Amino acid sequence: MGDADLLRFLGLDPAQLDPAPAWEPRQAASVKRLDGTHPCVRCGQPARATGAIDIPGHGRRWLDRCMPCLIATTPRGSSRAPLADTLAVLREAAREAGVALTIVTDESYPAAVDNQRYHLTLTTDGKPVMHGWWADLSTAERKYKAWIGERGSRKGARITLTDEADGGRVLKAWPDEDR
User: Fold this and answer.
1) Tally of CA atoms within 13 A in the half-sphere of 30 that contains its CB
2) What's the rounded Cα separation, in Å, for the pair 119 and 135?
3) What pTM does this model have?
4) Cβ contacts of 24 within 8 Å, gap of 6 or more
5) I need a surface site. Which of 63, 88, 114, 153 has the fewest CB within 10 A?
6) What is the SS3 assignment for 27?
7) How do residues 11-38 score in pLDDT, each as one tens digit?
């Protein structure tokens, strides 16, 4: 998404945006601008992120956003690598570095990662939200307890620990009212 597309998405007239100075090294002008006096162009809250964009016919303009609006309006291209490819790169880098790696992801992944036998899943309202795999049962059980404390208050949360080497047998589930 280009600058013009982003402005259309936000419903902004470029003339509404403050003029920005010519490019400065290390974005010095952007840092100075984040003084709490400029509102987010989307919601009006104090801006916590800013950047200058080039708009044909209007020149460089400031695009000030609060963090939630920045995240919600940051362009996400379709060129993102598939999760499996990203995980493969991470596993290879860990192998080369001689580092033990535990992968936790917020996207579903169809199979256990490498030889990591114990699979932890967080679902909310029946939909997978986060996964993690560990080779060691005591580590997986410790993570299971930590996830309950850290994420168990989510509405509709369910946390399960399964043994992938035993056909995905459920070892523990929280809450356990149906076991």
Assistant:
1) 17
2) 9
3) 0.42
4) none
5) 153
6) helix
7) 888 888 999 887 766 566 677 788 888 9
